[in-house]
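ok trying this again, last paste got cut off
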Amino acid sequence: MRIKTGDFSMGLVLLALSGVLYRQSGEIDTTMMYALGPVFFPRLLIGVLAVLSIVLLCQSVKFKAAQAPGAARTPVDGNAIVLRWALVGLTAVYLCLLPLLGYLYATIPFLFAGMSLLGPVRRRNLAIYAVTSVAITLALQFIFATLLKLFLP
């Protein structure tokens, strides 16, 4: 049996986080009545998080024979590590700017920068990234504010 410790520990952390969030979702004010209630969407997302973390836990355990001690390992790609840390930094900047700029003005550049960082950077793709960033942001604003009556920062 072989366990990917990074995936296993992340699965445990996310499963514990979903338990804590589910417990705290019980404190949401339910005095205002809406079609699905204010607790529905957070608990739906928490349930998805819990299921995906269980899947991650199951995938992190492999029941194969261990590799021979001299077997070659896959090399670590330096660009992938830089890309991961760039995404972490971009997300940290987004979270800092969110209370200052608000959802609309912070999310559009965040999505555009994330897509530019992950995808190919060509003139045509940049136009697609820009349109997609605006469309996703406005669609989520509409869904949360109009349909769910939950206002974003």
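PB: full thing came through this time. The radius of gyration is 20 Å.
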